[in-house]
Amino acid sequence: MSTFIEADGLTLRYDDVTAVDGVSFTLTGGKIYGLLGRNGSGKTSLLSVLAGYRRPSAGAVTVGGRPVFENAEVTRQICLVRGSGDAAVTGLKVRDVLDFAGIMRESWNADYAAELVELFELPLKKNVGALSHGRRSALGIVIGLASRTPVTMFDESYLGLDAPSRYKFYDALLAEAMAHPRTMIVSTHLIEEVSALFEEVLILDEGRLVLHDEAEVLRGAGSAVTGDAELVDRFVAGMRVLGEKRLGRTKSAMVYGELDDERRAQASAAGLDLGPLALQDLFVHLTEPTGDRR
Ligand SMILES: Nc1ncnc2c1ncn2[C@@H]1O[C@H](COP(=O)(O)OP(=O)(O)OP(=O)(O)O)[C@@H](O)[C@H]1O
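That is the input. Now the predicted structure with adenosine-5'-triphosphate docked in place:
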């Protein structure tokens, strides 16, 4: 089946809360997509609808051209790993949870699952309920990666993981995406840590999609101007400054908007360094309550 996902006016309401508000996008598939949003922006709600866990209140979502909700043929092709929650089947051993995951998904790869179990040092004989928060998250990650489903979504799956384990997750995700390309959606607010993995980025704010673009395009949408504070201030005067960092006399200002060759030459002549825009700064700018929206 082709794995593209199409959302058209997708809306999810819980009584009087509109968690997802008329979201439309097309994901062509075979990439790692970053889903970014502040707390309560609707990431989990959106992923739940994409995975067919919930019926949209309005609008539609299709995977490979087919509706998702109550369509077992399609939902079998989707794996959504939610935090550490889904793996928390107390009373079952880690081994049993993995066996069950394998039965549920025809694309499951048991050898790869075993490799990942070793990588994350998961104790197979231990009861899932007795695992630490981080280990439970790791179990969810193993299930998501080893499922090899055409659509695999990780909803803040790093919660509770220490930094070395998070980097193991990012490395494994990238290696897997290269070896077995599929549609992976990773929701997060640890943007700087994972942004290098994303090929496309979607930003949600209060249930609405405020940005969907290729990560490369976003990185080129602005610049970090670094150098002597006074010179930086002079250079960025009149530009849209998204954020600033200062260390002694050195300053780095994140500016939005393209710099043409003439401006680049001016920066170079003034001894200023120009670097790519940090996704984190763009994210903060687009989702801050008083921020301008495009
Ligand atoms: N089961 C529910 N019943 C009622 N309201 C809900 C429910 N689940 C989420 N909401 C509300 O919907 C909105 C979006 O929540 P959601 O969990 O989808 O956001 P999120 O971006 O995943 O947040 P976080 O990053 O904090 O996990 C919030 O206002 C939340 O309070």
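The chain has a mean pLDDT of 90.
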